[in-house]
Amino acid sequence: MINPTSPSISPSVLIVDDNQDIRELVSQLLEAEGYSASSAVDGEDMWQIMSKKKPDIILLDVMLPGTDGFELCRQLCADQNMPPVIMLTAKDEEIDRVVGLELGADDYIVKPFGRRELIARIKAVLRRVKSGHVQTGKGVYRFAGMSFKPSQMEIFDATGTSTPLSTSETQLLLTFVQNPRIPLSRDRLLDLTKGRNSTPFDRSIDSHVSRLRRKLGDDGKKPEIIKTSWGTGYLFTCDVETL
């Protein structure tokens, strides 16, 4: 089995779900694919497990006893040192998926899901995290009075005030600054940010662009930095200086 993140250590996945059957089934599926799986029944259990060892990725259910998955996602994604998060939800409403992505989740899966979809999404997120670390280096990109430091996963405004970025936001902005003034389709953005093995059911680009616009101070209704290229996708309009 090829390991997506390390040639010698199996990627570890933490499953946070109060349904015992789901925890056991997902654990079995992951272990059959060569992953190391652990599980938690709620947020308190999750933090206790993570205090001992952080996983490579978290599968986080929305409907949890006590603190719900949305709030846990917000807490996790506020710390750039936390692992990426895939939300698990039984709700098939678009607003629920959007909320998770807006809070910083890297992806979402609607229950019930199949084994192939689950593994594909986990691999895509782990691949994106890995490629982000490889490609970012120590470079600094300047545009529109801001500085972007991919290695730190932060952007800085003219006053030096920093805004943290999630893994997905960092990789997406890196793609834009490396391809300024070039219209990029949603499929192309998926290729560049998630790799050629991105799946056709992964349509989270729009939500990630929306969230990135806000962090850049770009008006979502009349964006000037990341413009919607009608019929194509998105266009990063700024001149970029690389240091």
Automatic annotation (TrEMBL):
UniProt keyword Transferase, yes or no: no
InterPro entries on file: CheY-like_superfamily, OmpR/PhoB-type_DNA-bd, Sig_transdc_resp-reg_C-effctor, Sig_transdc_resp-reg_receiver, WalR-like, WH-like_DNA-bd_sf
Residues within the DNA-binding region(s): 138-238
Superkingdom of the source species: Bacteria
Residue numbers of 4-aspartylphosphate PTMs: 61
Signal sequence bounds: none
Classification of source organism: Bacteria, Pseudomonadati, Pseudomonadota, Gammaproteobacteria, Alteromonadales
Any coiled-coil regions, as ranges: none
Domain OmpR/PhoB-type: 138-238
An example Gene Ontology molecular-function term: phosphorelay response regulator activity
A Pfam family annotated for this UniProt entry: Trans_reg_C
UniProt key word DNA-binding: yes
SUPFAM superfamilies recorded: C-terminal effector domain of the bipartite response regulators (SSF46894), CheY-like (SSF52172)
Domain Response regulatory residue range list: 12-126
Organism: Paraglaciecola arctica BSs20135
Keywords assigned by UniProt, alphabetized: DNA-binding, Phosphoprotein, Transcription, Transcription regulation, Two-component regulatory system
Protein name: Transcriptional regulatory protein ompR
Any one biological process term the GO annotation gives: regulation of DNA-templated transcription
A GO cellular component annotation in the UniProt record: protein-DNA complex
